[in-house]
Amino acid sequence: xxxxxxxxxxxxxxxxxxxxxxxxxxxxxxxxxxxxxxxxxxxxxxxxxxxxxxxxxxxxxxxxxxxxxxxxxxxxxxxxxxxxxxxxxxxxxxxxxxxxxxxxxxxxxxxxxxxxxxxxxxxxxxxxxxxxxxxxxxxxxxxxxxxxxxxxxxxxxxxxxxxxxxxxxxxxxxxxxxxxxxxxxxxxxxxxx
Length: 193
Fold this sequence. Notes:
Elements: E1 10-13, E2 19-20, E3 28-31, E4 37-45, E5 79-87, E6 91-96, H1 124-138, E7 146-150, H2 153-157, E8 166-171, E9 175-181, E10 183-191
Antiparallel strand pairs: 1-7, 2-4, 3-4, 4-5, 5-10, 6-9, 7-8, 8-9
C-alpha cells in the first residue's frame, strides 16, 4: 500500500531586526473602508542582543500603548510600536490563542526554516546564546513571530494560484492574524514602556 506523505505548510520567518513582543504585543489589525487588511500595529522588541537568561526581579505591568505614530528608531528603546502595511491586502483571519502556552497551532507547520527554534537537547542558556549570536552576526531576528507560509492550504482554499499573493501569519501574545497580500513593509513608531 502506497501512502502519500502530507507535507506541512512551511513557516518562513520575515527578515527583520525585531520580533513581535512575546508577553504584551497589543496586536491590532486595521482594515480599509472596504474591509480589506490594510496594516497591523503591535509592540516590537529590538534588543535581543541585550537579553539575559535569568528572570527579572520585579514584575512590570504593560499598559495599552497609544495609537501608532511614525518615529525614527532611537537607540536605547528596546520596545516600540511598529506598523506593518500590506500591499493589496485581500483576505484576513483573526484567531484567539489556542491555549495559554500556544498562540497558533505550531504542530501544523514545518519550522525547519526558523533559526530561532529550540534545538533537540538544547537548554535555555544555550538557546539564548545561539540565537543572540545569530542576531548579532546577521542583524536579523532568529524568530520574529511573523512568517510567510509556503505551501499554504488557505491560498488553495481561496483559489489563489501563482506567485502574486502571499499568506502571512503574525503571532501576538493572545491572538494571531493571518493576511493574504501581495507584499508588506514595516515602519517604526514611538517607544513604549
